[in-house]
Specification:
Blueprint lengths: L4 H11 L4 H8 L3 H9 L6 H10 L4 H10 L17 H13 L5 E4 L5 E4 L1 H8 L9 H7 L1 H6 L3 H19 L3 H16 L14 E5 L2 E11 L6 H4 L2 E7 L2 H9 L4
Antiparallel strand pairs: 1-2, 1-5, 3-4, 4-5
Helix pairs in contact: 1-3, 1-5, 2-3, 4-5, 10-11
């Protein structure tokens, strides 16, 4: 049975740590009216649902949840990635991945499933048996070859945990992300070490490959201006050399 609109609104307000008064002020409505919406004494218009969703910074899927709970049509479609309407976005993603060579790049979904990758990333991950369709979360947590190849595994786990917490806060609730956060939290607690001084500007992941240690930091790009849920949740992650030695190694390699 679907949740009532008031319950969904209250849940998201709690996740965003906003009081009724604060949300009402931000949305330009009275606290009394917002209270009536949460209690079910009033029904929201479509404009009101979208206004509250905007102030709560809800992702598209959560906005759809709010709308359907209010008995209204959803705002966002969730097309298959092979849909013809998404061809321009798929082409843009493929172009970004290819153009980033000789440095590694990949496209992942909200659960860190590897959807596409360029040749440098393919060669980096192939030694650990990681390819399209693999879960990078599961690989980080349980792929012995990848874990052995990470020269600073504990540091990578800590930063992955911070990133997953941020993504989970954005989506509000997600069993896959929640389980990953719990497992990484357990690992962090087992290897917790105090950090002293100011953190460096770049905290790279260091991979042991062919007797060398290659260091990379990454940037993440996502699609803006799309009304499709599937595309809005995709991420293109590009790795850049964190030192001159890594840059020279990557640029000297031939990428067929």
């Amino acid at each position: 049975m679907a949740e009532a609109f008031g319950a969904v609104l209250k849940k998201w307000r709690g996740l965003r740590r906003m009081s009724q008064m604060q949300l009402a002020l931000e949305a330009g409505v009275s606290a009394r009216h917002l209270s009536f919406l949460e209690s079910g004494r009033a029904r929201p218009s479509r404009g009101m649902v979208l206004r509250l969703s905007e102030e709560l910074q809800l992702p598209g899927g959560a906005q759809n949840q709010m709308l359907t709970a209010a008995g209204l049509a959803p705002a966002y479609a969730s097309r298959d990635l092979d849909d013809a309407a998404l061809v321009p976005l798929r082409q843009a993603a493929a172009q970004m991945l290819a153009a980033h060579a000789p440095y590694p790049a990949m496209m992942i979904d909200r659960h860190w499933t590897l959807l596409d990758l360029n040749r440098p990333m393919e060669m980096m991950l192939s030694g650990a048996g990681i390819s399209k369709g693999s879960s990078l979360i599961n690989a980080l947590l349980g792929n012995a070859a990848l874990r052995d190849a990470l020269d600073n595994l504990e540091e990578v786990e800590r930063h992955s945990l911070a990133r997953l917490r941020t993504e989970l806060a954005h989506f509000g609730a997600d069993p896959v992300l929640e389980q990953a956060v719990a497992r990484l939290q357990a690992n962090a607690a087992a290897h917790e070490t105090p950090q002293e001084g100011v953190l460096p500007a770049v905290i790279p992941a260091r991979y042991r490959m062919g007797g060398q240690v290659l260091a990379f930091f990454s940037t993440i790009t996502q699609f803006g201006g799309t009304g499709d849920l599937a595309m809005s949740e995709l991420r293109i992650e590009m790795l850049f050399p964190a030192d001159e030695a890594t840059r020279q190694v990557m640029e000297a390699m031939a990428w067929p």
